Amino acid sequence: MGEDLFWAIRGGGGASFGVIVAWKIKLVTVPETVTAFIVNRTLEQNATKIVDRWQYVADKLHEDLYIRVFLSSAASSRRGKKTIRASFESLFLGGADTLLPLMQQSFPELGLVKQDCIEMSWIESVMYFAEFRGQSLDVLLNRTQPNVRFFKAKSDFVKEPMPEIAFLGIYEKFYEKEAEDAEISFTPYGGIMNEISDFETPFPYRAGTIYKIQHMVHWEEEGSEASQRHINWIRRLYSYMAPYVSKNPRAAYVNCRDLDIGTNNKGYTSYKQASIWGLKYFNKNFNRLVRVKTMVDAGNFFRNEQSFPPLSSRKKNRD
Question: CA 296, 298, 301, 303: dihedral to nearest 10 degrees?
Fold first, then answer.
């Protein structure tokens, strides 16, 4: 297929270039035993201070240790009141006896104890985090969703730790009615990510990124009015976050498609218009992706709301 096309489909999204019918994947070695934990802390348990500290260590932890954070609203111990829960979910490639001293050294603020840790195989950890605990591995072959809910998601990248005061505004949003089934996830970078250049694949946001944010809201109520209320809520949250996340461009994650940041026209779309969303997803790699698109699909047969526009379409439009 050629080096350029192979580069483009490994992070640029296959839907712009053709139909991918097969992959060959290089596996990596994992130990027989890994350790997982999920530790919850509420505001009453100093969650804000712990999350703030996590920002400074998340991308610098031991390369075999991964800890992500979920923020959501939860019932408070005070009757009828709400609080904020921070869930720290972790996978460590090794046993608990090795993990505990590492945590004590690098992130003692969480207060991890051995009772929090569960040793298992790597594939069992997949089941654990997917909430298929105690079920047969065959459940991973089931392609039917157990339930279908409506949702809207948006994304951000953080290059400098957010100030503690930023979390207070997030909490206010999570106390609103539309946020009953909403969450923010913080996914740490660092480790091997820091060793991969911005141009090795189309995805450019590795070295220099502390963590990725995914904003998510679900709802079950049908109808356009309910959808709009929840979409408006997450847009307000996204607007609030602007001062604390990446800028020029305000980066977005392509696997969290967000049509709010820009879409193609139904007919001709200029490079300039597509770059509004394209630079957010791919930064300086967007230009190369458009050139690959022009080379393999100049007629723009494979297109969607955020597919790459071939440069040839611009020429035809002028003609």
Answer: 90
